[in-house]
Amino acid sequence: MKKLRFGMATQIFVGLILGILVGVIWFNDPRVATYLQPLGDLFLRLIKMIVIPIVISSLIVGIAGAGNGKQVGRLGAKTIIYFEVITTFAIIIGVLLANAFQPGVGVDIESAQKTDINQYVETSEEQSEKSVAETFLHIVPTNFFQSLVEGDMLAIIFFSVLFGLGVAAIGDRGKPVLQFFDGVSHAMFHVVNMVMKVAPIGVFALIGVTVSKFGLESLMSLAKLVILVHAGLLFFLIVVLGAVAKWAGVNIFTLMRYLKDELLLAYSTSSSETVLPRIMGKLEKMGCPKAIVSFVIPIGYTFNLDGSVLYQAIAAIFLAQVYGIDLTIVEQLTLILVLMITSKGMAAVPGTSFVVLLATLGTIGIPAEGLAFIAGVDRIMDMARTVVNLMGNTIAGIVMSKSEGKYNPIKANEVMKQSREAKVAS
To answer: Transmembrane stretches, by residue range (predicted)?
Structure first.
């Protein structure tokens, strides 16, 4: 008799369903958070523990093996331009959808569940005081070890790129350093496999706490907003990212099946970080060069948040409609421009979406207090936008590999096909 085996996606899905059931049965019971929150936090801490070592080691090995600084500079310029174009599309789609369907018209804000957003207000004020020049200067660390402690990914990436170029420049003398970081990279990917074994428990705990705290009925008063955000994200994923993937020689649905474990995990935890190492590994298996993957994917986590900016555009106009504020064309264009800037400058800040919205609302005259209205359902929308963020960055890695002439779509499709067949056989 053949022994039943449950793949990672099945285990995570079971954890997701059980977490929802626990949250519904023990709704508003503080014991759920008391017992389950530590389990969810433990899983997230395990993931955060391994992300930075993997990014540093993979980036140094990739850059050192990529060649000279001109190649890295060219790749960096193309990557940033691509990110800006794609995120601008996402913002415009969000604005158009919010204007077309008007999810905030007729909503009674007095019946909103009030949530404390003071922590986001303070962070937004700190960030708004920074000029554009200061934001870019912040990318260059004055103390690399301080950046490691703070988890400042852009500063870490900047140092790692320069260090990788330095290792490449010294030739044979840099080989021991390269071998060391190559060993670290391989070891950390084995650590990822160990950590992922507890992913279903982490998902169960995180979802259980969320549903218990807010309840499924919290969706009702904001159902139109939640539905519109999900519809907009789905449209962007299938139409916009689907078209880009097709240009690169990949079918969006085939790619999603290939990444189903990672997508389900990112969705249930609302965190792209949980799958960063696995996404990088799968792209390399598809034939994307390590140098490109280790450069594009981490940067995308701060510069290419397609799902987040689309949501922010819809949410900003939604709140304007709730307050009865009729935004002019100029004000909506201002909203687009501000989101283009703030979504990049604040990408590494905790609670990014709320912080970006706070920084944006003031520029078009919308009361910041309105964010408390949507805070209760933010987690539900966060799960969906995390999936779009993840897919956007994955496709960016493929696009940049193709643009450098180092990607074979035939090989990539064969790898995805073999992966699917292997899972069916198991």
So the answer is: 7-27, 47-67, 79-101, 153-171, 183-207, 227-248, 287-303, 309-342, 354-377
